[in-house]
From TrEMBL:
Alphabetic keyword roster: GTP-binding, Ligase, Manganese, Metal-binding, Nucleotide-binding, RNA repair
Catalytic activity reported: a 3'-end 3'-phospho-ribonucleotide-RNA + a 5'-end dephospho-ribonucleoside-RNA + GTP = a ribonucleotidyl-ribonucleotide-RNA + GMP + diphosphate
Enzyme Commission no: 6.5.1.8
InterPro entries, per the entry: RtcB (IPR001233), RtcB-like (IPR052915), RtcB-like_sf (IPR036025)
Pfam families: RtcB (PF01139)
Keyword Cytoplasm part of the UniProt annotation: no
Organism listed in the record: Pusillibacter faecalis
BP-aspect Gene Ontology terms: DNA repair; RNA processing; RNA repair
UniProt key word Iron: no
The protein, known as: 3'-phosphate/5'-hydroxy nucleic acid ligase
Cofactor(s) needed for function: Mn(2+)
Amino acid sequence: MSGELFEQYIHDMKIVQHFAMLSRQAIMDEIVKGMKLHVEEQFTTIHNCIDTDAMILRKGAVSAKAGEQLLTPINIREFASGKR
């Protein structure tokens, strides 16, 4: 995939990722509020790794760069632990 179609695809993927991030944030806000918790640190992990500079697109995967914080999705955790 290249050219205009590629640009449209990346654009759409970024919109979907942003929506997913907002959805996760809304869910977490409700949990924190309902349980009367105090958040000390917060970050998000995108589970569709897009790096257009390196031409990498991994759906359902996280970035693999050294030193990054990430939340491991349950479907990845299973394989990372060696349990199948």
